[in-house]
Amino acid sequence: MDLPFIVATLTRRGLLTPGSPIRVASQLNALRTWGWSLAGELRQAAARDPGRTAVIDENGVELTYHDLLDRAERMARSMRAGLGVQAGDRIGVLCRNHHGLIETIVAATLLGVDAVLVNTGLSASQLGTVASEQRLRLLVHDDEFAERVLGLPAELPRLDERAREELVAGALPGDLHPPERDGRIIVLTSGTTGTPKGARRPTPSGFGPLVSIIDRIPLHARDRVMIAAPIFHTWGFAALQVCLALRATIVLHRRFDPAATLAALTEHQCDALFAVPVMVQRLLEVPPPDPRPPLKVVAVSGSALPGGLAPKFMDIYGDVLYNLYGSTEVSWASIGGPQDLRQAPTTAGRPPHGTRLEMLDDDGQPVPEGRVGRIFVGNEMLFEGYTSGASRETHDGLLDTGDLGRLNADGLLLVDGRADDMIVSGGENLFPSEVEDLLAQLPQVREAAVIGVPDPEYGQRLSAFLALHPGETLDPEAVREYVRHFLARFSVPRDVIFVKYLPRNATGKVLTRELRRYYG
């Protein structure tokens, strides 16, 4: 990435403002010595703004950047001296959003240890599989998961919240030096269609990844930011990386509650919110506070925006919504801003600076504008492969996302869905997302999901699952007639099934395998 662009963006976002020469020198030395790992990012923030509040937990705990780094270093020293954890080991982190999660991940990177961010929604059986496949040396978990970890091998050490605090409090003095190898962050894929896979995340090599994001999403140094997206997920972890780089004050709640989130945004005067789309949808289901929180940015990622959600949200909270499309494997691919979302409410936007985006056919050739193709992405943060040794298809330095999409005449990306989700019914290619977006605009519908199911006559057919707002009713034939009015006849779902809610994982993605169980 070209230096003038980096300097201009960092200046625009307030990261190159004058400061104490001693602190600035210490900040730069931290990055030079520790790099752009999470440990390096926290060290540079503590060097420049040691007394600034780094984290505010919902239970009232507030830690400055100096305190947060001190606690992470204490935990690292205790893990090394008391538990024998060393560079190259892997530890599992089964925690919700709170300061202890950040301290644990930073402690791992200080030691050159790989941190496996475990999805809090995994079952005991899935957790056992992850522990085995990732060869965990240690598991750090919140107290609420005590019963879920009982079935893990007895020889796997576990730290609950009390034990973690004892490690921090009882740390012996000592120095920490940059490890011989970088500790990797391993993020588990969503597992919506099968067993989650571990994906190795690269460590940034400079300002490029940060600049790519904050150039398009107007976050600034020392903002106050609430991270509602789970930090174990790629998007929540990216939010943490950005916040530490910006020396932001981070507000965290263990669980998402729309009313509590709005109250916290107002109480702490947050400038920005990182969330997943279903959280934004839930915010619209509670009365907006008066006055509104002073949000300048609401950044979402992790799943597709339901049809009509973007303009509805911006009509209430202002043109502050930013939609990032990416994945665990490619990090980011495109970003849609408020103007893009006003123009095309479900768009994933355009690729940011330094990112290549191509729609390719099955032979790896570009498809014409407006035609559906496989989405391939190139940037400096492509994943390093799965921990199993598997990877993904590449073409000319571009990585396959596994999604299908198209570019419209204005260059905006429209994602049609996973390649695996496309169904063929009576010879016609169908994308469930198009029908989902339409159904989500019905005033009675709270949330909608459409899947393909086997059909003896047509091969496959569409099945719609609808969760309605309390007190609302809909007739299945009226739903089919509504779709028939806007879309081709082969897009009309033959099955319309009403459910209380859609099954989702901890990051808000609909678990289609659970819906298919309806059909046995």
UniProtKB/TrEMBL annotation:
Taxonomy, superkingdom: Bacteria
Alphabetical list of Pfam families matching this protein: AMP-binding, AMP-binding_C
Occurrences of domain AMP-dependent synthetase/ligase (ranges): 43-386
Residue span(s) of domain AMP-binding enzyme C-terminal: 434-509
PROSITE patterns: AMP_BINDING (PS00455)
Ribosomal protein found in the keyword field: no
Gene3D superfamilies, sorted: 3.30.300.30, N-terminal domain of ligase-like
GO molecular function, one term: ligase activity
Keyword tags: Ligase
Family membership: Belongs to the ATP-dependent AMP-binding enzyme family.
Protein name: Acyl-CoA synthetase (AMP-forming)/AMP-acid ligase II
